[in-house]
C-alpha cells in the first residue's frame, strides 16, 4: 500500500497535466494560431484595401473626400472570406468619409492603415473583425476535447497506476523474497566490496556460525575469519587462480575460526559480483559449517566397519554354533549313560553350562551382526538374570542382591538376547562402582492400563529393576544414553544400551532409567508376562526323552549330522540323513512311494552351495501337505527362525541345542503338529 500511495500523486499530476493540455492548452493554441492568422489576413486585406483607396485619392487629391460613392464601391468587395468585418475610411481630421454597412459585434479586433499621399497622411483605413466566431469555435473545440481529456485522464490515471503498482509490487516482493532468502539461508553469506576488500553485508547465519554480532563483522576484511595469516594467503592464492580458470572458487573443506578461537571445517564458495556494465564490484562469499557432515561421514564409515564386522561376527557365530551343536550333543549323550552323580558327572555338568554360556555369546554375536527378531520361549527370568549376573561379575568386587516374589510370572523371551540385555545392565552398574558395592535386582509383577507409564499396551508385565550405588547420570546425558554410539566412557562403543533398548522393544517391552547425581542409577525393564509354564528337566529324568518314529535330518555339516544322529537314535528314533534340500526331497518322495513316510523332517536353514530349508519346505509341502517340518540354524536371528510358521514350518530349534530341547521339539511337532 505504501508503494501505491507513493505512485498516486505522481500519476495524478501527470494525468492532470495531460487533461490540461488536451482541454485547455490545445484549444488555446488553436485560438492563438487562428488569431495570428486573422491578424495576418487583416494586414494583407488592409494593404490591398488601402491601395485601392489611394488610387482614388491620387486621381482626385483635393476632392477625394467627396468621392463617397467610389469609396463605398472600393470597400464593397471585402471581406472576401466570409468574415464579419467592418471597413471605415477616415480623413486626416478623423472624420468618417465612408464605411461598410456590416455591423461587427464585440469582441472584435481593429487594424488601422494610414493613407499617405506625397508623404502626407491624408486619412486612415480602419478594418474591424469580430472575434466571436473564433471564440465560439475555440469553445466548441474545448468542449469536444473535454471528454477526450477525461478519457485520457482515466486511462492515464488508472492504467499506469495499476501497471506501475503491479511492477513495483512485483519488484518489492522479489526484493522481499531475496531478503528473506538471504536471511534464511543456513550458510553464512558475506558481501565483500571489490575496492576495499571489506565486508559490506552479511546474513544472520554468518553471525550464528562465527559467533560475532553484525556490527563486529561489517567493515572488516575476512582476515579475522581465517585461522592464520598463512591460511588467508593460501585462500587468496586459491581464489585468484580459480577465478582466472573457472570464474568462481569452490573449496570442499577449508579450516576457519569461531570467535571463541575454535577451528571448524568449512565448505566455501566465492562468486564475483558485477554491475550492468559487467564491471567487477565485489564478491559473494558463502561459507557452510560442515562439522556435522564430517561427523556423519565418520559415523557412516564407522557403521560400514561395524556392518562388515557384523557380517564377520555372524559367520563366525554360525560356524561356532555348528561346533557347539556337536559339543553339547555329545555331552548330553555322555550324561545319558552316567547313572550316578559322581565327579565325572559334575565335570560334564560344568562343561555343559560352559557350552550353554558359549551359545548365549554366539546369540549375542548374531544380535550384534543383524539385530534379528527374537526367538521366544517361556523362560524363568530370575534364573536367566542370575546366570547373567554371575558371568558379568566374575572377578569383580561388586555383588548382586536379588528380590524375587514367590508368584513371579514367567516371560516369553529370547534367552540369548535378554541375557545380553541384563549382562549389559550389570556391566554398566559394575563400571559405575569402581570401589565396589551392591547391585540390587528386584523383580515384580505389574499390570499396566492404557494411560500408564511407560507407554505400553495394556496388560500384565514383569518389571525388573536394576539399581547401582554409583555416582549417577547427569540430566544433560539422561535423554541420550540409548542413542547409538553415545557414550561418556573413554573406551566405550556406545552400543551396549542402544542394543539393549532395541532388544527390549522387539520383545514388545520397554526400558526406562531413573538417575540423580550422587544417588545412583536404576534401570527398569518391562517384559510382557506369559501364561506358558516353564518346563524344568531333571538331570536324572531320562524317561521323558524317549520317542519313536522315522526322522529325516538335513544338514551340510558332517559333525552335526553325526552328533544329532546319535542323539536321535538314543531317543528311540530312526534317522535318515540328507546333505541338502534336493537330496531331502528325493528321500522324502521315495519314503512316500515305499509306504514308509517320515514322521518329521529337521532341516538346516542355510546350506552352502545348495538348497536350504526355506526353499525345500515349499517343495515338501507340494509333495505332502501334511508334512511336519522343523527348521534349525546357527543363524538364530534369521526372520524365518522367529516367524517359522509363516514359512511353512511346524517347529524351530536353534543351534546349538541340548538333547532335552531336541526331544521336546520333536515330540511336540509329531504329537500336535505345532
Task: Please provide a written account of the structure.
The structure is a single chain. With 674 residues, the chain is of the alpha+beta class. It folds into four domains: 2-135, Beta-Lactamase (2-Layer Sandwich), CATH 3.30.450.20; 185-289, PAS domain (Beta-Lactamase); 304-353 and 538-674, Rossmann fold (3-Layer(aba) Sandwich), CATH 3.40.50; 381-530, 2-Layer Sandwich (Heat Shock Protein 90), CATH 3.30.565. It is 48% helix and 22% strand. It has 17 helices and 21 strands. The chain has helices at residues 2-59, 68-76, 132-184, 204-210, 214-217, 229-245, 291-336, 343-370, 381-392, 415-431, 475-478, 496-506, 558-570, 581-593, 613-623, 639-642, 659-672; strands at 85-91, 96-99, 108-117, 120-130, 188-193, 199-202, 249-257, 263-274, 280-289, 377-379, 398-403, 410-413, 437-448, 459-467, 510-515, 521-530, 549-554, 573-578, 600-604, 629-633, 651-654. Strands 10, 11, 12, 13, 14, 15 and 16 form a seven-stranded mixed β-sheet that branches. The protein has a five-stranded antiparallel β-sheet with strand order 6-5-9-8-7. α7 packs antiparallel against α8 and α9 (381-392) packs across α10 (415-431).
Amino acid at each position: 500500500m505504501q508503494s501505491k500511495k507513493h505512485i498516486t500523486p505522481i500519476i495524478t499530476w501527470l494525468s492532470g497535466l495531460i487533461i490540461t493540455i488536451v482541454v485547455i492548452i490545445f484549444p488555446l493554441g488553436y485560438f492563438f494560431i487562428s488569431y495570428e492568422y486573422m491578424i495576418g489576413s487583416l494586414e494583407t486585406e488592409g494593404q490591398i484595401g488601402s491601395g485601392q483607396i489611394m488610387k482614388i485619392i491620387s486621381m482626385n487629391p483635393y476632392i477625394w473626400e467627396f468621392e463617397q460613392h467610389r469609396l463605398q464601391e472600393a470597400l464593397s468587395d471585402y471581406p472576401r472570406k466570409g468574415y464579419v468585418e467592418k471597413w471605415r475610411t477616415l480623413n486626416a481630421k478623423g472624420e468618417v468619409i465612408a464605411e461598410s454597412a456590416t455591423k461587427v459585434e464585440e469582441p472584435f479586433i481593429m487594424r488601422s492603415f494610414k493613407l499617405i499621399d506625397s508623404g502626407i497622411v491624408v486619412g486612415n483605413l480602419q478594418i474591424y473583425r469580430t472575434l466571436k466566431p473564433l471564440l465560439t469555435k475555440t469553445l466548441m473545440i474545448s468542449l469536444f476535447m473535454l471528454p477526450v481529456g477525461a478519457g485520457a485522464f482515466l486511462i492515464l490515471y488508472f492504467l499506469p497506476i495499476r501497471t506501475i503498482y503491479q511492477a513495483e509490487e512485483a519488484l518489492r516482493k522479489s526484493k522481499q523474497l531475496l531478503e528473506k532468502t538471504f536471511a534464511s539461508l543456513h550458510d553464512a553469506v558475506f558481501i565483500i566490496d571489490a575496492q576495499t576488500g571489506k565486508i559490506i553485508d552479511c546474513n544472520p547465519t554468518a553471525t550464528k556460525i562465527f559467533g560475532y554480532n553484525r556490527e563486529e563483522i561489517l567493515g572488516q576484511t575476512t582476515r579475522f575469519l581465517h585461522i592464520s595469516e598463512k591460511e588467508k594467503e593460501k585462500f587468496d592464492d586459491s581464489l585468484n587462480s580459480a577465478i582466472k580458470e573457472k570464474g568462481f572458487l569452490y573449496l570442499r573443506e577449508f579450516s576457519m575460526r569461531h570467535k571463541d578461537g575454535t577451528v571448524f571445517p568449512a565448505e566455501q564458495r566465492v562468486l564475483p559480483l558485477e554491475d550492468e556494465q559487467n564491471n567487477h564490484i565485489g564478491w559473494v562469499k558463502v561459507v557452510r559449517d560442515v562439522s556435522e557432515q564430517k561427523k556423519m561421514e565418520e559415523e557412516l564409515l564407522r557403521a560400514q566397519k561395524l556392518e562388515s564386522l557384523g557380517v564377520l561376527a555372524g559367520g563366525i557365530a554360525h560356524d561356532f554354533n555348528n561346533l557347539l551343536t556337536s559339543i553339547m550333543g555329545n555331552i548330553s549323550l555322555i550324561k545319558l549313560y552316567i547313572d550316578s552323580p559322581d565327579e565325572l558327572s559334575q565335570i560334564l555338568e560344568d562343561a555343559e553350562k560352559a557350552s550353554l554360556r558359549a551359545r548365549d555369546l554366539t546369540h549375542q554375536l548374531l544380535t550384534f551382526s543383524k539385530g534379528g527378531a527374537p526367538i521366544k520361549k517361556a523362560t524363568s527370568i530370575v534364573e536367566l538374570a542370575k546366570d547373567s549376573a554371575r558371568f558379568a561379575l566374575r572377578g569383580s568386587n561388586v555383588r548382586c542382591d536379588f528380590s524375587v516374589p514367590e508368584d513371579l510370572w514367567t516371560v516369553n523371551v529370547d534367552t540369548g538376547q535378554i541375557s545380553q540385555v541384563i549382562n549389559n545392565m550389570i556391566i554398566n552398574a559394575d563400571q559405575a562402582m569402581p570401589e565396589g558395592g551392591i547391585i540390587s535386582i528386584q523383580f515384580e509383577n505389574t499390570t499396566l492400563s492404557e494411560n500408564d507409564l511407560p507407554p505400553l499396551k495394556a496388560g500384565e508385565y514383569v518389571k525388573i529393576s536394576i539399581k547401582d550405588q554409583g555416582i549417577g547420570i547427569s540430566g544433560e546425558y539422561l535423554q541420550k544414553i540409548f542413542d547409538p554410539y553415545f557414550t561418556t566412557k573413554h573406551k566405550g562403543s556406545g552400543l551396549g544400551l542402544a542394543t539393549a533398548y532395541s532388544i527390549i522393544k522387539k520383545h514388545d517391552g520397554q526400558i526406562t532409567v531413573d538417575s540423580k547425581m550422587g544417588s545412583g542409577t536404576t534401570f527398569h525393564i518391562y517384559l510382557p508376562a506369559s501364561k506358558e509354564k516353564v518346563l524344568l528337566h531333571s538331570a536324572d529324568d531320562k524317561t521323558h526323552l524317549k520317542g519313536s518314529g522315522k526322522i529325516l535330518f538335513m544338514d551340510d555339516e558332517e559333525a552335526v549330522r553325526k552328533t544329532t544322529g546319535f542323539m536321535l537314535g538314543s531317543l528311540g528314533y530312526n534317522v535318515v540323513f540328507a546333505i541338502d534340500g534336493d537330496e531331502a526331497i528325493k528321500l522324502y518322495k521315495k519314503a512316500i512311494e515305499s509306504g514308509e513316510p517320515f514322521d518329521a523332517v529337521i532341516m538346516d536353514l542355510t546350506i552352502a552351495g545348495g538348497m536350504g530349508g526355506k526353499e525345500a519346505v515349499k517343495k515338501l509341502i507340494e509333495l505332502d501337505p501334511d508334512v511336519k517340518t522343523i527348521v534349525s540354524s546357527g543363524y538364530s536371528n534369521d526372520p524365518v527362525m522367529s516367524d517359522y510358521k509363516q514359512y511353512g514350518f511346524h517347529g524351530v530349534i536353534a543351534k546349538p541345542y541340548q538333547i532335552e530341547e531336541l526331544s521336546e521339539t520333536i515330540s511336540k511337532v509329531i504329537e500336535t503338529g505345532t
